[in-house]
User: What shape does this take?
Amino acid sequence: MFREIRRKKNEIREEAVKALLRDSRRGILAVNGDNGYPYAIPINYLYDEERRRIFFHGSRVGHKIDALKASDKVCFTVCGNEIIKEEAWAPFVQSALVFGRCRLIENSEKALIILKQFAMKYYPSEDMAVAAVASGGEAVQMFEIEIEHMSGKQVQEK
Assistant: This one.
């Protein structure tokens, strides 16, 4: 159902893909937008390796929400781990690509638990994360992407 990476020599192992998803702070969410155009936006996210989910938050209205209501199929991409090897001047960069189905988390208790985990990734202390969730958590919508397929590759940018 999903295409394989064409240049197998560039493919990275699943553990490297998971590490990139776990350690990166931002990714690009692509949805099926208005008039058949893709709509891709940078988002903060939380990767849950155990449940094979990616969580993110969003407002209650807007292009992203309208697109997700029309189609739950999404693509999510993360780039990172740029390195320069001694023998090569151009950097190597890794990317992870995820395909899945996205849905709003309807259960408010579950959404708040996930929001706290999400905040722990971005705030410098647990106290700050708890305070942020307490002050604005009720207004936030949480979404989850159920991962159906993921792959990754490393390429040299030259």
Summary: The helical segments are 14-23, 63-70, 108-122, 126-136. DSSP finds four helices and seven strands in the chain.
